[in-house]
Amino acid sequence: MTVLKRFAGEEVSGQWIKDGTTILKGAMGWLFDDSEVVTLIQEEIQMYLHHRRMVNGQLNLGWLRSAYYTQIQQIAQQDPAYYALVAATSPNKTWRQISYPYYMKAVLPGEFIQFQHLDLNLKRYVECGRGRNRIQTSLTLSQETAENCTIIVPGFHNHIKDCQGRLRSKGGKNIDHNGNTLKTDGIFTAGDKLKYGDFVPAICGPGDIRISRPEIIHGSASNKAGKAETSRWVVNPWFVGIQDDHETLDVPESGSWTTVAAAHRDLMATNGTPSGQINIHGYPTHRFPAAVALRHISALSDALIGQRRWDDPAVLIEADLVLGENENDAWDFVNSCRHRMIRAYKQNMKIIRELETYHYGKNSYYYLVDKGLYKEPISEEDNLTREIVFASVQVGTSRFFGTSFQYRLTPTCNPSRILRPKVKPTRQVITDNQTNL
Questions:
Q1: For residue 310, is it left (φ>0), alpha (ψ between -120 and 50) or beta?
Q2: Average pLDDT, stretch 167-193?
Q3: What is the pTM of this model?
Q4: DSSP conformation class of 254
């Protein structure tokens, strides 16, 4: 528990062992010590929210499904201390990890957000421990409330084998998709709550990390109607283990190291999820036009996004630094990486601003802000008149954004124009349908 104490504090270790879940107060609070960074976080998320639409005719349920690679997501994916916390709390101390790309949570008031589930195939978990190393974490960027936060059942990891048979037998159709997630609404009964414990809110603030074992039932708090009354921003970097062949992931159905590494390289979404189920809500088949890679932080950071292999000597040396016994060396390395990330963040946001303005013209977030025309979305209804179509695994289509848009503003993203401003964007493919996200 040396690493956990180093990066999370002395008192956390006992709670982690007892409850299988804890909140690491201020673990990423360094981001909020810089007022410019706080402004950039708000600015970038508002930009993505400006381009958020309904997806395949479905409500967003508090998710921002085009935001896989915001700068703050890439920082969480590559932070060496964040990685060390996951590696240290993994039951098998799984040190070869890769961050699985996942869209961020950006809740608006009025959105339906209520759910509860287990991200496990219970049968396989009990038989062979499958999925037990997939530690769940979230980085909160805003102040949460008791009615808009994650809810958990502390200590449920101590009871899961006792009650797994009843949960599975009662689950029936609630066993999702390929069986790697189990909805517990309606099957985790009042009697179960008396016996094993009830849900409690895990209220986090900016810079806090919630970390939980995969056996912990969790969900989202809400008001009595199942909806949010406040905004909430959360990043889920989803570090998943890599098996000894350096190709198979902890849950094989979630893909391979090669496919996840390629997604990070190209800033693309994956067609699966860390739990190993298909992306049923649809996923963007092109990168967001204003997405910019945050790179070259360290060899370890490169490995966490699949841009270096874990048998690279430089990666192993740096992993030994953060997971080793020398407190000063570990913190020196972490702080040097964070300094580079902040510098890259500030520089990249200048490029993002120019790219987004170029690609969206008069419908650009930055254009509207500069002209005093921007209206911040304050509820889900602000997005309901515009819709996008993502690739849908269920119907096997490969359509992209724009085919069913109803615009409030005239789109001006013209793929035939040649970009000749100060910035040189990374290679990307823009299609005629890619007019507005």
A1: alpha
A2: 69
A3: 0.85
A4: G
